[in-house]
Design brief:
- Keywords: Signal.
- With about 180 residues, this protein is an alpha+beta fold.
- It contains three helices and nine strands, in the order ααββββββββαβ.
- The protein starts with a helix and ends with a strand.
């Protein structure tokens, strides 16, 4: 039992470290023949400022029932409650490793931890592993979103603190997470 607990703490700590990273909005998107100018990344709360948070429709191929839907192409999450009602939608900042489009379940959570880089992280909700990297949603307590190191595989999907709290309240252990493109 102690071994499992230590492994879980190590996985959450690793995710917390990853969650302290941020990727540019255009990373992984198609590009023109010339290299685009690097853009300064912004936190999800800053990107959503002044926007209607319900302005994006739930993807058609996102399953049924109560679930979290994560759209890799849109960098957006929907929390879908009873009767297919979207209770919240928001933009997220992806990491350098994406989960494969599929249906998952929340496997572990941590309310508040310190990442291996010393950054306090909260509302960590893990649901997958890709390329040996834990994948999940989280928010940095200080709202930081530093530029990620593209040579390091990270799996933390960054949310604003407000959106992280909403995810935490919605997605308990076993909650379905549907990843679409």
């Amino acid at each position: 039992m102690a071994g499992l607990t230590a492994a879980a703490i190590a996985a959450v700590g690793f995710l917390a470290y990853q969650a302290s990273a941020n990727v540019p909005d255009d990373l992984g998107k198609g590009s023109a023949s010339k290299s685009p100018e690097p853009k300064k990344s912004t936190a999800p709360a800053e990107r959503d400022k002044g926007k209607d948070k319900d302005d994006k429709a739930l993807p058609d191929d996102s399953g049924t029932g109560e679930r979290v839907v994560y759209d890799l192409d849109e960098d957006r999450v929907w929390l879908v409650g009873a009767n297919e009602k979207v209770t919240r939608t928001f933009e997220v900042t992806p990491s350098t490793v994406d989960p494969t489009p599929a249906t998952y379940s929340v496997t572990s959570r941590a309310n508040a931890i310190t990442g291996s880089d010393g950054t306090p992280i909260e509302h960590v909700v893990l649901f997958a592993t890709a390329d040996g990297v834990p994948i999940g949603f989280s928010a940095a307590v200080d709202g930081s979103t530093p530029e990620p190191d593209p040579t390091v595989k990270t799996g933390g999907i960054r949310e604003s603190r407000t959106d992280g709290k909403a995810m935490w309240d919605f997605a308990g252990i076993g909650t379905k997470v549907v990843v679409v493109e």
